[in-house]
């Protein structure tokens, strides 16, 4: 991730890369939590203001859902929560006299008594008209009577016991915007209404409520929509009456393709809390490409009988698209979101390859060529019984990871072959050594081996002293910036043992084997992990040898990871294209590195192209998406230079992430605020130093700093000096030049040098660069990159 500081052979203003608008969406808040966040989010550094706040009752407690969005004006905001009718009228009268004007009103029923939330601007306009507790006919009559002098600012529909009531506020104005209200729509009518209005109108309010009595078989749910012109965007998506969990899934899918939440209302349908929401584009892929991807995936799901698919796409290491489709669980109608984890089957082998190579790099006793079985070898006599055959004694770590250990089958590895052993590893490794001859000399014949990778996972345990899962999570995933809460885990066998945010797995007409007869934990090194596709891409970008993101392995270890085994396959696999748990399409001229996975209830794919387009998809049935069809879409995006300049991963380098965590709260590090607050390009203190520069230079991102750069003319050169903080990890700084501020390139002559001979602040080093002033290129910039 890059952040830029521009110079015109002298310093000039900082440029920002992202045009995305910030937002924050929160649900389940108490009144104190809302009030606290209203003050925090409205400050100058965040610059977001409350747009909607809705109340609802959950488990007997009043809670609030709130949306903060980009500030369109300089007016202050004020929020009232949980007001009774009398309290709201009293407060509103006082606020009107002080110049506050209401622009949002929400009503909800708490124990048969209506309560109200309201948001005000300090705008000093003409006094407003507020009416509460109207029936539909009373409301519409009042609205008609104000037609010439006032226009409807907002309204809400709410329940008062068994009555449906209306609250509304009108603005006085001779110049009235176009307002249209669609009252009492059914769900089907709402869909039609949205489709008909989308090209010209913008959705201002979508108020959901339930009727007290309806004919048998008819839905109680109704919706009243306030529309306004002109439309800010003719592209938006609306979904009403989602369960809270399904809202979270949908919200992750929408923000995962570069959209943002533009409307949020949580309300009670009986005892159930449901959500209405709207999303608008916010810097992601063009909608035409999103539509093509959506169609491709949904067609594949229908053809393959797949309940859910999750797809993530990265461009040159940056996550630019992530979306899940379908149902995570068909029995509960749980919608799939980007935070759902899927079994990735044999993509686990790529993870194991990285884990083994990393563990070996941390010590000097053992290496890839170390033999594993027998006295004096890595495992010694931990498995099987002596004496070991010559071939058994000659199996190396490299053989395990290259599928060339020499066994002709996986023995009793799979759970249904020997259920009494459960998730234990030692019994089936012992059985293999005692009952299966190593028929081929290790390293001479390739045969795809789940067993070999399960044994390789024990190499990690033997060297590190940790479990394979613990070591891999702490030493591989954590340094890649992957969430410890929703990051990859070793899965369990039964549906009852599902992990947090794990999908369910399903057979198909052609693949009828029960997915829950397989015990992933037993086969941990070969097929065990559950993961989100974006997390697989975050790992891949840190073991690919590309300098955009700092690798967690040294260059020689990355080379080892991708170096192929030598023998040809005896079972249909081209081992000349396999590395240590990673394979390529063509070793002589590879287009990608990665791995696929397939077993009952699961298909998965990981394609890593360091300098181009990488992607990963997972499915909860044994069918999948066409990689070639995906590549066609991605190639079209590349040909048209249409990749967006965003990174949806929400993570950069672990050291930078830790620095950001020290300076910004967890709520502030919400994805929607990244571009204005804590991301490398953000400049929350508005001192023209992006966070990446503040991190590199050792400055405080929340406090405005004077320019740390000093300039002096030295002969025919411009000398620029500054101090950088020592020990900064994951950040680089270089100098680039341009003739016209559109195309930038690295300088051929100037070099940034450390001036250790000069006095500096303790823990800092003076750096400088000499820029020839006779260059044809007139502009220079410092490029700060977090990788």
Automatic annotation (TrEMBL):
<keyword id="KW-0378">Hydrolase</keyword>
<dbReference type="InterPro" id="IPR001466">
    <property type="entry name" value="Beta-lactam-related"/>
</dbReference>
<dbReference type="InterPro" id="IPR012338">
    <property type="entry name" value="Beta-lactam/transpept-like"/>
</dbReference>
<dbReference type="Pfam" id="PF00144">
    <property type="entry name" value="Beta-lactamase"/>
</dbReference>
<dbReference type="InterPro" id="IPR049511">
    <property type="entry name" value="PGH-like_rpt"/>
</dbReference>
<dbReference type="InterPro" id="IPR050491">
    <property type="entry name" value="AmpC-like"/>
</dbReference>
<feature type="domain" description="Beta-lactamase-related">
    <location>
        <begin position="293"/>
        <end position="610"/>
    </location>
</feature>
<dbReference type="Pfam" id="PF17660">
    <property type="entry name" value="BTRD1"/>
</dbReference>
<protein>
    <submittedName>
        <fullName>Serine hydrolase</fullName>
    </submittedName>
</protein>
<dbReference type="GO" id="GO:0016787">
    <property type="term" value="F:hydrolase activity"/>
</dbReference>
<feature type="signal peptide">
    <location>
        <begin position="1"/>
        <end position="18"/>
    </location>
</feature>
<keyword id="KW-0732">Signal</keyword>
């Amino acid at each position: 991730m890059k952040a830029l500081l521009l110079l015109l052979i002298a310093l000039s203003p900082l440029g920002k890369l992202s045009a995305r608008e910030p937002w924050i969406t929160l649900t389940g808040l108490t009144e104190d939590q809302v009030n606290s966040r209203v003050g925090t989010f409205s400050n100058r550094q965040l610059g977001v203001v409350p747009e909607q706040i809705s109340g609802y009752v959950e488990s007997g407690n009043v809670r609030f859902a709130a949306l903060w969005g980009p500030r369109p004006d300089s007016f202050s905001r004020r929020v009232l929560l949980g007001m009774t009718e009398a309290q709201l009228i009293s407060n509103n009268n006082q606020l009107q006299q002080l110049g506050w004007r209401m622009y949002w009103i929400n009503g909800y029923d708490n124990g048969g008594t209506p309560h109200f939330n309201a948001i005000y601007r300090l705008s000093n306009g003409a006094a407003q008209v507020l009416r509460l507790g109207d029936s539909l006919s009373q409301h519409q009559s009042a609205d008609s009577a104000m037609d010439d002098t006032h226009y409807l600012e907002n309204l809400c529909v709410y329940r008062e016991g068994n009555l449906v009531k209306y609250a509304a506020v009108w603005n006085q104005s001779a110049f009235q915007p176009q307002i249209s209200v669609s009252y009492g729509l059914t769900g089907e009518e709402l869909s039609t209404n949205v489709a008909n209005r989308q090209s010209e109108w913008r959705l201002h309010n979508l108020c959901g409520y339930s009727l007290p009595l309806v004919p048998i078989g008819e839905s109680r749910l109704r919706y009243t929509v306030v529309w306004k012109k002109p439309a800010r965007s003719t592209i938006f998506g609306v979904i009403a009456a989602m369960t809270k969990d399904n809202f979270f899934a949908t919200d992750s899918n929408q923000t995962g393709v570069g959209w943002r939440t533009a409307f949020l209302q949580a309300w009670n349908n009986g005892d159930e809390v449901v959500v209405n929401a709207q999303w608008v584009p916010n810097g992601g892929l063009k909608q035409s490409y999103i539509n093509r991807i959506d169609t491709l995936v949904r067609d594949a799901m229908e053809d393959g009988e797949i309940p859910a698919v999750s797809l993530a796409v990265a461009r040159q290491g940056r996550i630019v698209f992530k979306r899940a489709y379908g149902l995570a669980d068909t029995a509960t109608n749980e919608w799939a979101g980007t935070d759902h984890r899927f079994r990735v089957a044999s993509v686990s082998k790529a993870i194991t390859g990285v884990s083994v190579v990393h563990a070996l790099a941390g010590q000097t006793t053992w290496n890839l060529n170390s033999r594993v079985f027998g006295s004096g070898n890595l495992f010694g006599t931990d498995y099987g019984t002596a004496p070991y055959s010559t071939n058994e004694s000659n199996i190396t770590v490299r053989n395990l990871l290259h599928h060339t250990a020499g066994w002709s089958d996986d023995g009793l590895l799979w759970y249904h072959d020997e259920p009494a052993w459960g998730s234990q590893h030692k019994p089936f490794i012992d059985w293999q050594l005692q009952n299966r001859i190593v028929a081929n000399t290790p390293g001479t014949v390739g045969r795809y081996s789940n067993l070999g990778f399960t044994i390789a996972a024990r190499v990690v345990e033997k060297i590190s002293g940790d479990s394979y899962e613990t070591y891999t999570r702490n030493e591989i995933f954590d340094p890649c910036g992957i969430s410890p809460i929703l990051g990859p885990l070793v899965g369990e066998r039964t549906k009852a043992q599902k992990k947090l945010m794990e999908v369910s797995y399903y057979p198909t007409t052609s693949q009828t084997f029960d997915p829950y007869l397989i015990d992933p934990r037993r086969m941990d090194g070969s097929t065990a992990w559950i993961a989100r596709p974006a997390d697989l891409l975050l790992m891949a970008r840190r073991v690919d040898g590309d300098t955009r993101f700092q690798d967690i392995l040294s260059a020689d270890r990355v080379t080892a990871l991708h170096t192929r085994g030598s023998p040809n396959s005896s079972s249909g696999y081209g081992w000349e294209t396999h590395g240590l748990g990673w394979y390529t399409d063509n070793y002589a001229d590879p287009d990608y590195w990665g791995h696929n996975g397939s077993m009952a209830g699961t298909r998965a794919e990981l394609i890593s192209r360091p300098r181009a387009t990488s992607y990963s998809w997972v499915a909860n049935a044994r069918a999948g998406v066409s990689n070639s069809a995906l590549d066609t879409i991605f190639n079209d995006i590349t040909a048209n230079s249409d990749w967006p300049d965003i990174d949806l991963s929400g993570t950069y380098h672990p050291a930078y992430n830790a620095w950001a965590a020290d300076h910004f709260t967890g709520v502030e590090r919400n994805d929607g605020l990244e571009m204005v607050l804590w991301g490398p390009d953000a400049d929350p203190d508005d001192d023209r130093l992006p966070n990446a520069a503040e991190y590199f230079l050792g400055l405080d991102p929340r406090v405005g700093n004077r320019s740390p750069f000093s300039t002096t003319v030295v002969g025919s050169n411009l000398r620029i000096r500054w101090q950088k903080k020592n020990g900064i990890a994951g950040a680089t700084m270089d100098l680039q030049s341009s003739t016209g501020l559109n195309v930038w390139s690295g300088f051929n002559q100037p070099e940034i040098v450390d001036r250790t001979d000069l006095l500096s602040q303790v823990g800092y080093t003076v750096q400088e660069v000499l820029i020839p002033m006779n260059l044809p290129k007139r502009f220079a910039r410092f490029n700060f990159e977090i990788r």
